[in-house]
């Protein structure tokens, strides 16, 4: 595209309008900047449970129906993070909306009737607009409620409302590594959480499970998250992070509450993984698409129960390796007959989805839904998954 391309003019107009754009004006603004091109569009956002694509209202047109992810062309575009053409009528393009590499939804684009849906200039233009939509969905969502409301199929409990505002995006990637996470049940989540940060080529990550359920568990986990971040940003090492959480929990409560966790640092240059396991299920190492072993080192008591005897676990990953972390609500999920989901089932499904070439967030979406379905759709405990993949391919697969 040239500097005078109409899509770039539309993008420049969009950027200009975005500075004072309220969240509930996003859909109508997308329509307005595309109108001079003879194009209309609908913004869809993925719902909290990652099962449907829900239209963002505000275009002045009737609001479309929710689109199922698993049984629609739009859903295929979302799961594969690829542009797909629908012949209509009317003809349209489904364009993934991401912020960085975090999947947020889709832009349904209706070009002029005589447009060639395979035209790369058209598709590139749509990607420009959808890219800015992704940034704006992320940056504007806390200035109003419409973006949160659109993503919900029902009201969210107080505990979940608090926790979701503390978590980082579900997916993040650099050229060397991709990390993705997912929590269920998303509307009633209790003490489960995750965190990550990348600085100087080192990925620091955590998966946590606060004792108990509901708001008390979330409050414990929230304090643990805050203590982890404060200590990490002050330059603490892994044992120091654990001690910081111990101190914060002990200072806040006297009832022996605790948080199980895996804390880890991964050097994306050398492949060295250092980790501390505070009473948590061990991470699973997947190599060449197969689950090869659990990482059982670095043991100490759960966070909140001070323990100075920890020895940091170490292992060195190979390029292409994946690390799957989970809470006990995954493997201990029971079906109506009482059978547990189990580690072998989790590993088998992970191998199957990885073998299908699915991006990391789609692998987790399917794993999480398998856990839900195993329980007959009713979660009795939080179930959290976190997947790290060390490869340039993993990162590239997350971009539209």
Q: Could you walk me through the main structural features you see in this protein, from its secondary elements to its overall organization?
A:
By secondary structure, this protein is an alpha+beta fold. Helices cover 34% and strands 26% of the residues. The protein has twelve helices and 18 strands. The strands form three sheets. Strands 3-2-1-6-5-4 form a six-stranded antiparallel beta sheet, with helices on both faces. It has a six-stranded antiparallel beta sheet with strand order 7-8-18-17-13-14. Strands 9, 10, 11, 12, 15 and 16 form a six-stranded mixed beta sheet that branches. Helix 10 packs antiparallel against helix 11 (360-374). It starts with 5 loop residues before the first helix and ends with a helix. The model has no long low-confidence stretch (mean pLDDT 93).
Task: Compile the SSE list and pairings.
Layout: H1 6-18, H2 26-34, E1 40-46, E2 52-55, E3 67-68, H3 73-80, E4 84-86, E5 92-99, E6 102-110, H4 120-140, H5 146-150, H6 158-164, E7 171-173, E8 177-184, E9 192-199, E10 202-210, H7 214-233, H8 238-252, E11 259-267, E12 272-278, E13 284-287, E14 290-294, E15 299-300, E16 313-316, E17 322-326, H9 328-331, H10 343-355, H11 360-374, E18 383-390, H12 392-396
Parallel strand pairs: 12-15
Antiparallel strand pairs: 1-2, 1-6, 2-3, 4-5, 5-6, 7-8, 8-18, 9-10, 10-11, 11-12, 12-16, 13-14, 13-17, 17-18
Instruction: Find the structural class using helix and strand composition.
Output: alpha+beta
* Helix count from the secondary structure assignment: 12
Helix content: 25-40%
Following the backbone from N to C, one meets helices and strands in this order, namely HHEEEHEEEHHHEEEEHHEEEEEEEHHHEH
**What's the pLDDT, averaged over the residues?**
93
**Which percent band covers the strand fraction?**
25-35%
Largest sheet: 6 strands, antiparallel
**Low-pLDDT segments, ≥5 res:** none
Terminal Cα span: 18 Å
Radius of gyration, CA atoms, in whole angstroms: 22 Å
Overall geometry comes to: globular
Strand numbers in spatial order across the main sheet: 3-2-1-6-5-4
């Amino acid at each position: 595209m040239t500097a005078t391309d109409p899509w770039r003019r539309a993008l420049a107009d969009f950027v200009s309008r975005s500075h004072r754009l309220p969240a509930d004006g996003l859909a109508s603004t997308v329509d307005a900047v595309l109108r001079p091109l003879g194009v209309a569009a609908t913004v869809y956002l993925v719902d909290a449970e990652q099962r449907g694509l829900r239209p963002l209202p505000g275009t002045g047109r009737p609001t479309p129906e929710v689109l199922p992810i698993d049984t629609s062309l739009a859903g295929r575009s979302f799961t594969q993070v690829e542009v797909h053409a629908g012949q209509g009528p009317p003809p349209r393009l489904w364009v993934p909306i991401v912020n960085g590499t975090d999947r947020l939804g889709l832009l349904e684009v209706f070009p002029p009737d005589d447009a060639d849906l395979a035209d790369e200039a058209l598709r590139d233009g749509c990607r420009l607009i959808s890219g800015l939509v992704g940034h704006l969905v992320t940056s504007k969502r806390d200035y109003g409620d419409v973006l949160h409301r659109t993503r919900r199929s029902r009201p969210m409990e107080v505990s979940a409302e608090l926790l979701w505002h503390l978590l980082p995006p579900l997916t993040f990637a650099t050229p060397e590594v991709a990390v993705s996470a997912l929590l269920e049940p998303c509307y009633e989540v209790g003490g489960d959480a995750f965190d990550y940060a990348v600085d100087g080529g080192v990925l620091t990550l955590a998966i946590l499970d606060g004792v108990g359920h509901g708001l008390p568990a979330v409050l414990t986990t929230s304090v643990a998250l805050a203590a982890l971040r404060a200590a990490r940003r002050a330059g603490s090492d892994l044992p120091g992070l654990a001690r910081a959480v111990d101190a914060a929990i002990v200072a806040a409560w006297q009832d022996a509450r605790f948080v199980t966790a895996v804390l880890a640092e991964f050097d994306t240059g050398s492949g060295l993984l250092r980790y501390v396991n505070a009473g948590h299920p061990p991470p699973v190492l997947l190599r060449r698409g197969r689950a090869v072993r659990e990482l059982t080192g670095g043991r100490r008591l759960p966070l909140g129960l001070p323990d100075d005897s920890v020895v940091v676990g170490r292992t060195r990953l190979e390029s292409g390796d994946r690390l799957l972390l989970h809470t006990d609500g995954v493997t201990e999920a029971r079906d109506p007959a009482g059978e547990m989901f189990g580690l072998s089932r989790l590993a088998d499904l992970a191998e199957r989805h990885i073998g299908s070439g699915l991006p990391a967030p789609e692998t987790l979406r399917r794993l999480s839904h398998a856990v839900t379905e195993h329980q007959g759709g009713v979660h009795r405990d939080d179930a959290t998954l976190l997947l790290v993949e060390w490869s340039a391919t993993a990162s590239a697969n997350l971009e539209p």
